[in-house]
Amino acid sequence: MSAEQAEPRGVSVELLASIDLGAEIPGMDGRRLRMRMVTIEPGGVFGPVHDHVGRPGTVYVLEGTITDHRDGTTTEYGPGLGWPEDRNTVHWLENRGTVPAVEISVDVVESAD
């Protein structure tokens, strides 16, 4: 599958927690810390290609295997593994496995997101 074909499908997202960072840290007005549980069904795609400029985060895989496509390479992450997402991250994700893949994603986003 090419990056152009990485349209989202088979993905569900549940917001687990969110906190207004402006009330906690000077200079963080309009930003919040959020934690989500993302489930990618077998054959599912978390796309299209997207970046994390202004939206840094980290991901931890709970179940299944997630394939991360970035910089022309693919990396598979299984339970207990994860990856950072910084301003240089441009990627899309998929589940090539036969069971749902579940991740916990924590990132800093604009309050409107």
From TrEMBL:
<dbReference type="Pfam" id="PF07883">
    <property type="entry name" value="Cupin_2"/>
</dbReference>
<protein>
    <recommendedName>
        <fullName>Cupin type-2 domain-containing protein</fullName>
    </recommendedName>
</protein>
<dbReference type="InterPro" id="IPR014710">
    <property type="entry name" value="RmlC-like_jellyroll"/>
</dbReference>
<feature type="domain" description="Cupin type-2">
    <location>
        <begin position="37"/>
        <end position="106"/>
    </location>
</feature>
<dbReference type="InterPro" id="IPR011051">
    <property type="entry name" value="RmlC_Cupin_sf"/>
</dbReference>
<dbReference type="InterPro" id="IPR013096">
    <property type="entry name" value="Cupin_2"/>
</dbReference>
